[in-house]
Amino acid sequence: MTIHNFENENTILNQFIAEIRDVSIQADRMRFRRNIERIGEVLSYELSKTLNYVPLTVTTPLGSKRISVPKDELVLCTVLRAGLPLHFGLLNYFDKAENAFISAYRSHPDEGDAFEVIIKYLASPSIENKTLVISDPMLATGKTLENVLKAFEKYKKPKQIHIVSVIGSTAGVEHIQAVFPENTHLWIAAIDDTLNNKSYIVPGIGDAGDLSFGTKL
């Protein structure tokens, strides 16, 4: 796996990450969602540099110009519900992409800290020989992304996989390195070292879904 971690680079991503981490700003859900969306836009731009391009001749009012444009067929898959703002950031840049949606949640059968990730729903076009871009803002343990990969097995095999996340844990990144194909790319704005006993990233940001859309029962 190729990991593109922008945490130590001087980039505008740092401003957006600082704001989504800040408890005094998190209360503004609209700003939180917009910052996640903007992070998705920046990571989309960086990802776009690795795609394949073809020349296109564009006619202007005064002549014509050859421009290189992406030729890869993209399928953008988001993990509901927390991934929606990040998904829209990707879609703002890859507006011709097809879209897929998958629901995943943590099930605590014994009401303790231990959990399993349950996949309940997946709607997707064929991904055969296409570029699959999976967006999940928080890469905590990596179990969600592992189960997403398993759920896609019946949709044929993509040409390449990209994962877009906002913040991950060291353990989560190591886990997906072990289970995803070697030619997968991970695009991530920051990686934190620690998971707490509930497998939440520390310092992280808290629950991205709740911060975007409100608490759930």
Attribute tags:
alpha/beta; two-stranded antiparallel sheet; 7 helices; 217 residues; eight-stranded mixed sheet
SSE inventory with pairings:
Elements: E1 2-5, H1 13-21, H2 23-26, H3 29-48, E2 53-60, E3 63-70, E4 74-80, H4 84-93, E5 98-107, E6 116-123, E7 131-135, E8 138-139, H5 143-151, E9 160-169, H6 170-179, E10 185-192, E11 194-195, E12 201-202, H7 208-213
Parallel strand pairs: 1-10, 4-5, 4-7, 7-9, 8-9, 9-10
Antiparallel strand pairs: 2-3, 5-6, 11-12
Got a strand count? 12
**Rg from alpha-carbon coordinates:** 18 Å
Structural class: alpha/beta
Shape estimate: globular
Beta-strand residue fraction? 25-35%
Mean pLDDT: 92
Shape-level CATH architecture: 3-Layer(aba) Sandwich
N/C terminus separation = 37 Å
Helix content: 25-40%
Poorly predicted tracts of residues = none
Largest sheet: 8 strands, mixed
The secondary-structure element order is: EHHHEEEHEEEEHEHEEEH
Query: Helix tally?
Result: 7
| CATH topology assignment | Rossmann fold
Assigned CATH class? Alpha Beta
| Number of separate structural domains | 1
